[in-house]
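FAQ: What does a multi-protein file look like?

Like this. Sequence, then tokens, then the next protein.
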Amino acid sequence: MQDTVSFGYEDVSPEEKRTRVGGVFSNVASSYDVMNDAMSAGMHRLWKDRFVRRVKPREGDMILDMAGGTGDIAFRLQAKGAMVTVADINPEMLAVGMERAMKREIGGLTWSEQNAEVLSFDDRSFDAYTIAFGIRNVTYIDKALSEAHRVLKRGGRFYCLEFSTTLWPGFAEIYDAYSHKLVPQIGKLVAGDEDSYRYLIESIRRFPDMPTFERMVADAGFVQTKVEPLLGGLVAIHSGWKI
């Protein structure tokens, strides 16, 4: 195991990262929509819609939505008839999701507190595994990918939506300035939490680039891996199949 892992631009022990990441998401749980709007200039809703279209949920599909506590992806999947288990390591995030589901009168979801690196589910339990804007916060990404592969049935689909690095000249510099300078200030003004928003931006910069992460997905055992860049790679949809 690594002696240190990244927490934003810092290198910390795995135990410290788990504790500090947990604190970040406990802090931002109640302002989740504000956080996503700040980090994506409101475009996260369109990206999530596109992500779910790529998943192609079918009536009766058993889908594990990991790091999905607030329900954004799960609600979209459930609307297509999928049987969704919403899993998250953070109980505050799950609480927000359950409250949102109640207000919207969305039923039929299973809510489960889970560590992506050590899932409690049996082998070959799910038809699809989704994770949106969550995998970069996992301490050991390779473990989470291995667990995703384990709990999928043969023929199961893996889909990951995550920030990456845009390759569009000019736009990269604009977004870099926006994210590093403005997003933490928005967090401070709107949610009273500058540090958590700064970490979330820094964690994007430390996440593997698209080719590297695609190789990690393949190394976990997935085949026919693909990457679909959005906005030149600012965000990417990664996918693969278990055979």
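And here is the next protein:
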Amino acid sequence: MSISNFMSNKLISLELDDDLNKVKATFDSKKIHHILILDNKKLVGVITDRDLYKHLSPAIGTNKETFNDSLLLQKKVHLIMSRNLITAEADISLNEAVLIIHDNNISCLPIVDKKAHPIGIITWRDILKLLAIKYRKKLQQK
């Protein structure tokens, strides 16, 4: 079965020159773990919540926050995003997507069209959810 049946097409994206403050606000409000980074609608990077928090002080948002801590939020996303993207097109199977994610030790697989425009994304969490649903159905049939 094609990955297009399982991928999310509700994409959250930002631009190269957006700052980390916008990235943090997006993660906080959307409750997601991956943001696609675009340049003229073309996928050029991915930033994860883990990438973001590696670059921020734990004091941000607390009464211990310093001026230097808040300056970190002004850093541009292109400075910390992952650029070496592994992507796939929508005609691959779910099994192929699982292998790509596993073999490349990545947490998400952006799905792109021929022009590298993002059309979907599937994450390891999505795959785990699919397995859990399938397993639960199997248990209910017994």
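Q: Is there any per-entry metadata?
A: Some entries carry free-text notes. For the entry above: The first helix runs from residue 20 to 30.
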